[in-house]
Amino acid sequence: MQDDSPDTSVLQDFLIDAEVLLTKTQECLLHLELIGNDPDAIDCMVDTLGSLANRALTHDQPEIADFCLQLRLLLEPERDRNRLHGEALDVLSDCLTLLSWQLELIDPQTGLLSLDNQEQLELIGNLTTTLGPEKASRAE
């Protein structure tokens, strides 16, 4: 008889990798709080969010992947990087906190994340607004 239960070791590996990547984004954020608009810290944040999105997609976590990709799209353009300070860093911190909570809310047995994406949308909107009016018009 075939066992149809999900492989929890694969899920656990993903969760460990995701926590490592999330920790790296938080280190990038701390770096940005110390040295505003530092290009290396922003590159690190963008690259790490991309890696986390790819890992989430590979492990059937579309909500987490989509949120990471949206954040990455907002932070990636070179011309917008000088706006990543003050309130924008506070909102980015809130986004990373939400990601952390979402990782904790993944059911360890099924791998499912039951989630209303309203908070994600609200934080993306807030980050878009704090990055400037040019971003707000592009996000609509």
From TrEMBL:
InterPro entries the UniProt entry points to: HPT_dom_sf
GO MF annotation terms: kinase activity
UniProt KW keywords: Kinase, Transferase
One biological process term in Gene Ontology: phosphorelay signal transduction system
Record protein name field: Histidine kinase
Organism, scientific name: Pseudomonas laurentiana
Source taxonomy: Bacteria, Pseudomonadati, Pseudomonadota, Gammaproteobacteria, Pseudomonadales
